[in-house]
Design brief:
- There is one protein chain.
- By secondary structure, the chain is an alpha+beta fold.
- The protein has three domains: about 200 residues, no CATH class; about 150 residues, Four Helix Bundle (Hemerythrin (Met), subunit A); about 50 residues.
- The chain is about 65% helix and about 5% strand.
- A five-stranded antiparallel β-sheet has the order 2-3-4-1-5, covered by helices on one side.
- A hairpin with an 8-residue loop joins strand 3 and strand 4.
- The chain is elongated, with a radius of gyration of 35 Å.
Length: about 450
C-alpha cells in the first residue's frame, strides 16, 4: 500500500471537517424547525382565548388569578446554580440595588431556573442526543451547569417539574408580554422576576397552582395565590399584556397593531402621557369610520376625538329626531290687531270676521307656547336620553376616553399614571370590539335612514 502524501492527509482531514460541519448545520436546522413547531403548538387555544377576551371586555366581572412569590435563595437547587454562576448569596439577597454583573442578572431570571431543570430532564430522557434536544428547546449548547449533576442530585425538583410544569412541547424561556405554557395551561410573567416580590398572572387558577407547587418543591420561594377583582389599579395591571398576547384573535384589525405597539412601548417606559395620546389617535381613526359608515359623507380633517363624537351625535339628531317645537308667532298677532282698525265699520261683517281670525291666532299662539314650554320642562325634569348610535355603557367609556385624551393633549393638571393609561386602553378596546362586531352585523345595503333608526333603537334598548 502506497503511503498517503501530506497533501492527501490534509485533504482528508479537511473533507472530514467539512462533512462534520455540514452534519452539524443540518442538525441545527432540524432542531430549529422542531423548536418553531413547538412554539406554534404553544399558542393560545380557543378556550383560553375566550377567557382572555372575557377579561378584556369586562375585567370587573371576571377578574384574574395572581401568584406572588417571596423569593428565597438558600434552597439546595438555587445554591447549586449560584455556585455555577459564581454569585455570592449576599448579592442575591441585596434587592436594594441592581447588580451590573451579567452572571447575577442572569441567575435572577426565572428562565435560568427553568432552563436548568429542563436540561436535567433532557439528560434523563435523551442523553444520547442531548445537544440536539437542548437546541430543540430553544437553549444554546454551551450551558454553564451540568445536566448530569442536576439529574443525579436534584431528583425531587425534577419529579415536581415533570408533574406540574413539563410537557412534550415545553419551552423553558419565559419573557414579558408572551404567554408561557405549562402542563395545565398558560400564564404570564407580570413585571420582572428580579422584582422584590415577582408575580405571575393567568385567567385560570390551575396553571398558577401547579407553578406554585413546583416553586415550593424546588424551594425557590414562598408563593401566595389569590384572585383579583379590586382595587381597580390592581385589576387592570395585566390588561396591556393580556391584550397583546390575544390581539390577533380579539381585535382583528392589523392596521392599528403598530399604533398599539407604540402605545405599549410608551407604557413600558412609564411615558403615560404619550401612551394615552397614541391610544387617542387610534380612537379618532375608528370614530371617523363610524361617522363615515353611518352618514355616508366625509367627516373632514383636523377634528379632535371629542369633536368627532359630537359631530356623530348632532348629525344623528338631524336624521332621526323631529325638530323641537318653537314659540308662537307673537308678531303675527300684533299685525292682525293693527289690521282690525282698518276694518272697523266695514260692511258684510268684515270687522267681526277679522276679530274671530285674531282670536283663533291668539289661541294658536297659546297652544304653541304651551307645547314649547312643555317640551323644555320635560327636557329639564325628565332628563330623557338623547339619541345615540352607542350603547349606554359604551357612551360612558367614550366619555372617559375623551377626557383622558384631552388631558394628555392639553397637558392639564389631571394626573396621568399607569392606571389612567390602562383605563384609556380598556375604553378603546371596548369601542374597537363593539365597532368590529357592529360593522360585521350591519346590512350596509339598506337605506341610510333605516340603518340609523335601527342602530339608534338598538342603542336605546341596551
Amino acid at each position: 500500500m502506497v503511503p498517503e502524501t501530506g497533501n492527501e492527509v490534509e485533504h482528508a482531514i479537511r473533507s472530514a471537517e467539512v462533512a462534520a460541519a455540514r452534519r452539524e448545520m443540518v442538525e441545527r436546522r432540524e432542531a430549529q424547525r422542531i423548536f418553531r413547531e413547538k412554539h406554534a403548538r404553544n399558542a393560545i387555544k380557543p378556550g383560553e382565548l375566550a377567557e382572555i377576551e372575557a377579561y378584556l371586555r369586562s375585567p370587573v366581572s371576571t377578574g384574574f388569578w395572581r401568584l406572588t412569590v417571596k423569593k428565597k435563595f438558600d434552597g439546595p437547587f438555587f445554591s447549586y446554580l449560584a455556585g455555577v454562576f459564581g454569585v455570592s448569596p449576599q448579592e442575591l439577597h441585596d434587592e436594594s440595588r441592581r447588580s451590573s454583573d451579567d452572571r447575577a442578572a442572569e441567575l435572577k431570571k426565572l428562565s435560568t431556573v427553568m432552563r436548568a431543570v429542563t436540561a436535567g430532564i433532557l439528560f434523563e430522557d435523551r442523553a444520547a442526543d442531548l445537544n440536539r434536544a437542548v437546541l430543540e428547546h430553544g437553549m444554546g449548547k454551551d450551558i454553564p451547569y451540568s445536566p448530569e449533576v442536576i439529574s443525579r442530585d436534584f431528583a425531587p425538583v425534577l419529579n415536581a417539574f415533570r408533574q406540574f410544569v413539563y410537557h412534550p412541547d415545553f419551552l423553558p424561556t419565559i419573557s414579558q408580554g408572551r404567554a408561557y405554557r405549562v402542563k395545565s395551561g398558560v400564564l404570564l410573567l407580570d413585571g420582572s422576576w428580579s422584582d422584590v416580590q415577582p408575580s405571575l398572572v393567568a385567567t385560570q387558577k390551575k396553571p398558577l397552582e401547579d407553578m406554585a407547587a413546583f416553586i415550593v418543591a424546588a424551594q425557590l420561594g414562598k408563593p401566595e395565590l389569590e384572585r383579583i377583582f379590586s382595587p381597580e389599579d390592581e385589576l387592570f395591571r395585566p390588561y396591556f399584556k393580556l391584550l397583546y398576547i390575544g390581539y390577533d384573535d380579539i381585535i382583528k384589525d392589523s392596521r392599528i397593531k403598530s399604533g398599539l405597539k407604540t402605545a405599549f412601548d410608551y407604557f413600558t417606559t412609564s411615558d403615560f402621557t404619550h401612551c394615552i395620546s397614541s391610544l387617542g389617535l387610534i380612537a379618532e381613526d375608528f370614530l371617523t369610520q363610524v361617522f363615515e359608515y353611518y352618514f355616508r359623507m366625509p367627516c373632514g380633517k383636523g377634528h379632535t376625538l371629542g369633536q368627532i363624537y359630537e359631530l356623530i351625535n348632532n348629525k344623528l339628531r338631524e336624521f332621526t329626531q323631529p325638530m323641537p317645537p318653537g314659540l308662537g308667532d307673537m308678531d303675527a298677532i300684533y299685525r292682525t290687531v293693527n289690521e282690525l282698525e282698518q276694518h272697523r265699520g266695514a260692511p258684510d261683517n268684515g270687522y267681526e270676521k277679522k276679530v274671530e281670525a285674531a282670536l283663533r291666532d291668539v289661541i294658536s299662539l297659546i297652544k304653541a307656547d304651551r307645547r314649547y314650554f312643555g317640551f323644555r320642562i320635560d327636557q329639564a325634569t325628565k332628563g330623557g336620553r338623547r339619541a345615540s348610535l352607542f350603547p349606554s355603557m359604551l357612551n360612558e367609556d367614550l366619555g372617559e376616553l375623551i377626557r383622558y385624551r384631552n388631558a394628555a393633549s392639553h397637558k392639564s393638571r389631571v394626573p396621568l399614571g399607569s392606571f389612567e393609561a390602562l383605563r384609556t386602553l380598556y375604553c378603546l378596546v371596548t369601542f374597537v370590539v363593539w365597532w368590529h362586531e357592529t360593522r360585521m352585523a350591519t346590512d350596509w345595503q339598506l337605506p341610510r335612514d333605516e340603518i340609523l333608526r335601527t342602530a339608534s333603537a338598538a342603542a336605546a334598548a341596551s
